[in-house]
Amino acid sequence: MSTKFIDFDHVWLKYSPTSDFAIEDVSVTIGEHEFVAIVGPSGCGKSTFMKLCTGLRPPTKGTVIVDGREVAGPLKITGMAFQAPNLLPWRSTLDNVLLPLEIVEPYKSTYRAKRREYVDRAMQLIETVGLKGWEKKYPWELSGGMQQRASICRALVHEPKLLMLDEPFGALDAFTREELWCVLRDLHAANPFTVVLVTHDLREAAFLADTVYVMSKRPGRIITTKHIDLPRPRELDVTYTAPFAAIVAELREHIGALRKS
To answer: Between 3.40.50.300, 3.30.360.10, 3.40.50.720, 3.40.50.2300, what CATH number should domain 1-23+40-77+161-261 receive?
Structure first.
């Protein structure tokens, strides 16, 4: 594994003093530039894990260390994308992508002086994800897949060290979803960053991730760690091979056992 980047040390979290624990005794180490996926039944604590990583929630017990520092509040080194693209309808694709540079330091204070540089950076991302020519269009003029491409650009434009993805492709059709797997794969390969992907799609987890963590029913615990040994770069053809099918079947078996328990 590369340099340690995220370290959960016996982390527990409850949302209020009277509530049950959402996750319990989670210890996980994620390497710098590693791509991990978290799967598990609904309500198992996958999104809670993301909140702990980004400093949106402090642990009730245990410690969370990201990039060498204990997390004590919201992190600026993080980009996030969700199932809903949440693009601002009054802003063009380009202006939506530029938004983090307008509101997040250290970019906010230099935005006017460096706007040309920042526009060039945003346009490079827009072209990389296949949206060149659509930068002046508004969200209602884009398909769902195109909106999600713009959302990913927005999450990466400030060059975060950590990208958090919460079911980003869950609302898309199968063909568009697979196209965006490849977009994300290529972005990660070209300029590596650490990725935590929350997903219910076991094929998606197996195709994209270096490591897949399976969480139990609430209170969430890590019950299985699966290292994906498929070589990179991975083409979509690998999803039709016996080794890939075996990985997905193994993950499905763990999830199925959880549902029966």
So the answer is: 3.40.50.300
